[in-house]
Write the structure tokens for this entry.
Amino acid sequence: MAVQGVGGATGSDASIGKMEAAFDKAIEKSAKITEITTEKKVALDAAKQRPNN
């Protein structure tokens, strides 16, 4: 049986919610950075493959 004191389960739930929000934000930013760097790498690779006349 869980003992609830000051901040009990509600405090834990709020902390977990904040952590989940922070992780979600970090994952979203990481995905955006990956998308941008991938686009730039593709453009660079394409530029390298053009003939230099």
Summary: The chain is about 80% helix and 0% strand.
